[in-house]
Structure formats: structure tokens, C-alpha cells
Amino acid sequence: MSKLYIVPTPIGNLEDMTFRAIRILKEVDLILAEDTRTSGKLLKHFEIGTHMHSHHMHNEHKTTENIIARIKAGENIALISDAGTPAISDPGFLLTRACVENKIEVECLPGATAFVPALVNSGLPNDRFIFEGFLPEKKGRQTRFLALAEETRTMILYVSPHKLLKTLAEFITYFGEDRQICVCRELSKLHEENVRGTAKEVLTHFEKTAPRGEIVVVVAGKTIIKEPKKSKFSKDDEED
């Protein structure tokens, strides 16, 4: 049976495109792209001539049924986003779920995604972590911060450049100014930068240097202070 391929694309450096990803994109009958103009440049660079259709957050509810019908009719289709792995804070979940519900095979290729190198670069504990993606803009934002303030695992968030200063200030409000943070900017690109320090130190840095580009923020979890175990003997017993 035909299938849906989920194909990651580079988050910046075109050398991160895999041989397998290029082959699949050349072999499928159709490529679904978040932005055909952006993806067109990528396909041209790798000499991929496969036809593209738009598939993004504003039309995915309408296009999914037609895509399912095309795969059932025998077409192999690949889904890509502007950068990174589709469905990770990008369109892709609805289509993947629909394929699973229709017993259509889904094959996700391994490849570029922003939060993994950011986590590793940060130097913060990575044995247990949570990925939050983009925080709510307004409704539910405070509630989310209150919940995250008690989180003990390392946290990974996507933050747009024009909201970084506000978000860092909110970290100080809810997590405290001494919470360890790493802001990873322009990963895999020429001007990649990793700014590490306390929430206060990192905020001070970006108040002096305006943030630009794609940003991933890694935040240390809350430290649990264990109380010393009480002796089973009373103070009077010890004196005796």
C-alpha cells in the first residue's frame, strides 16, 4: 500500500539534509509543504522536481480528507515543513492521525529538529526533560507558568525573538532570578549562539544585544531540597 512519509528538512544548514530524505522527496508523487516558496528553494538546491501542494495550519483541516483519498488511490506522499521535523510545533499531527485511523502506513524519517541540539548544547540535565513548544500567548499563560514553576525536569521552549525579553522576565517572576537557563539562537547556522547563565544574567545580555533569529530556550527544573532525616532517638535519649 502507498504511504505517507514525514520528512525532516534542515533547520538552517543545508548540509544537514540526509541522502535518504533527498531520495524520498524525488521518488514520491507529491510533496506537501508548509510554504511552497520556502520549500521551493530547498527543492531547487537539491534538484528535486516533485510537484508541491500547500499544507499548513490554516488549511490542514480542509486538505486532509483529499490527501487520504489520494494515498488510498495509490500515491506516495511526503510531508515537509519550513524547517525541522513536521508535527513538532508545525503542521503534521492531524494528517498523521488521519492516516493511522485509515490504516495507512506512516514512515517518519530521522533528521533535523531544533530542540535536541539545544538541549545537548545547554549543559543542563538531559536524562529527563519536557518539551513545551510555544507557550500560550495570553489565555492560560500564567496558569502554565505556575505549573512549570514546580517542574523538576529540564524544560525546552520555543520563543520568538520579539517575545524573548518578556519571557525571560517571566522566568524571573515565576522561577526566580537564579534559575539556570540557556538561550540557543540560530542553531546550525553561521551565527549560532548559546547564551548560558542565570535568568537574570541571560536577560541582562539580551537587553544589551537585541535577540534575532530562531530561538530555543532550555530551562533547568526546580531543585528539590531534601530535609535531613530525623534521628529515631530524642535529644534527651542521646544525652543519656
General description of the model:
- The termini are far apart.
- Helices cover 35% and strands 20% of the residues.
- The chain is elongated and about 75 Å long.
- Helix 7 packs antiparallel against helix 8.
- The chain has 240 residues and is an alpha/beta fold.
- The longest helix is centred in the N-terminal third of the chain and has 13 residues, at 60-72.
- It has a five-stranded parallel beta sheet, sandwiched between helices. Strands 6-7-10-8-9 form a five-stranded mixed beta sheet, with helices on both faces.
- A hairpin with a 7-residue loop joins strand 8 and strand 9 (193-198).
List key phrases describing it.
five-stranded mixed sheet; 240 residues; 10 strands; alpha/beta
What is the radius of gyration? 23 Å
- SSE series: EHEHEHEHEHEHEHEEHEH
Low-confidence residue ranges: none
Question: Which structural class best describes the helix and strand composition?
Answer: alpha/beta
Task: Please state how the strands of the largest beta sheet are arranged side by side.
Answer: 3-2-4-1-5
H/I helix tally? 9
The rounded distance between the terminal residues' Cα atoms is 82 Å
Sheet-strand content, in percent, reads 15-25%
**Share of helical residues:** 25-40%
The largest β sheet comes out as: 5 strands, parallel
Helices and strands in order:
Elements: E1 3-6, H1 19-27, E2 30-33, H2 36-45, E3 52-54, H3 60-72, E4 77-80, H4 93-101, E5 105-108, H5 115-122, E6 129-133, H6 141-148, E7 154-159, H7 164-175, E8 180-185, E9 193-198, H8 199-208, E10 215-219, H9 235-239
Parallel strand pairs: 1-4, 1-5, 2-3, 2-4, 6-7
Antiparallel strand pairs: 7-10, 8-9, 8-10
